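Fill in residues.
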């Protein structure tokens, strides 16, 4: 297949300030914005993270962007797109900084055991299928200060590399890697072809972890992921548990990773 240029695949809407690129993308998607619309802002006043947390998004320092997709796939497979974006973002960060970059399952991007990027995927579906998927990506690129409560787990690429990074270049490389990996994902609607690449960066692999759900908590060894992107855990009885991303968080036994 002929390699398509990024500009053929996306339409970019750029803002100086916005409440949240995910909130704006969802609103635009409901109003009919086409597949491949990207909303990007220099600053967010109400950036949102997973589990209702805030996402600090100071001006001129990070990549705060949300991509609207309308994939013709089974609704149950769309959550894997979060892992596809995590992989693309990790590869782009690695290429642009030269630093080793890992993924903490399912979608935190880690440098030197601290988080540089988070991904928030939201979607709208009905019995007929997917209306839209919004994949929000927040990368702490040149960020220098973080709120006190996340200071021990958050970092930026600049802080780890010791020099600033070109945000425009990094954004383009994330999107280029993403559209390559997205085509591969769409072929089988799962991670069969991407799974090795993802696992090679998986910081939890072969590590002792704690699985924390709403009414369950247990320890075990993370073995890797399956082709659906679920985490495989060998529990203390030697059984393999399959962990679905929506239901739990994963911690190292003695901290964040
Ligand atoms: C996480 O909790 O790790 C996910 C963080 C996702 C943050 C990004 S920044 C761009 C987009 N807009 C938002 O409001 N959130 C996502």
């Amino acid at each position: 297949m002929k390699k398509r240029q990024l500009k053929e695949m996306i339409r970019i809407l750029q803002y100086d300030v916005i409440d949240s690129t995910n909130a704006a993308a969802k609103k635009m998607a409901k109003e009919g914005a086409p597949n491949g619309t990207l909303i990007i802002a220099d600053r967010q006043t109400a950036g949102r993270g997973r589990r209702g947390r805030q996402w600090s998004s100071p001006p001129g320092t990070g990549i705060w962007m949300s991509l609207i997709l309308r994939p013709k796939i089974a609704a149950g497979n769309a959550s894997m797109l979060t892992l596809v974006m995590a992989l693309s973002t990790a590869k782009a960060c690695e290429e642009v900084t030269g630093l080793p970059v890992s993924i903490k399952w399912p979608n935190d991007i880690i440098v030197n055991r601290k988080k540089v990027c988070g991904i928030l995927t939201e979607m709208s579906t009905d019995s007929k299928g997917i209306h839209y998927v919004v994949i929000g990506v927040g990368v702490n690129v040149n960020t220098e200060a973080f709120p006190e409560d996340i200071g021990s787990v958050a970092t930026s690429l600049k802080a780890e590399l010791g020099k600033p990074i070109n945000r425009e270049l990094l954004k383009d490389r994330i999107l280029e890697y993403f559209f390559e990996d997205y085509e591969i994902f769409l072929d089988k609607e799962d991670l069969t072809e991407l799974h090795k690449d993802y696992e090679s960066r998986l910081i939890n692999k072969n590590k002792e972890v704690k699985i924390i759900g709403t009414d369950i908590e247990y320890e075990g060894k993370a073995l890797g992921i399956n082709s659906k992107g679920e985490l495989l855990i060998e529990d203390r009885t030697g059984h393999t548990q399959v962990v679905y991303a929506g239901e739990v968080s994963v911690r190292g036994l003695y901290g964040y990773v």
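The pocket of biotin is lined by residues 20-22, 44, 47-50, 53, 55, 57, 64-66, 108, 118-120, 136-138 (CB under 6 Å).
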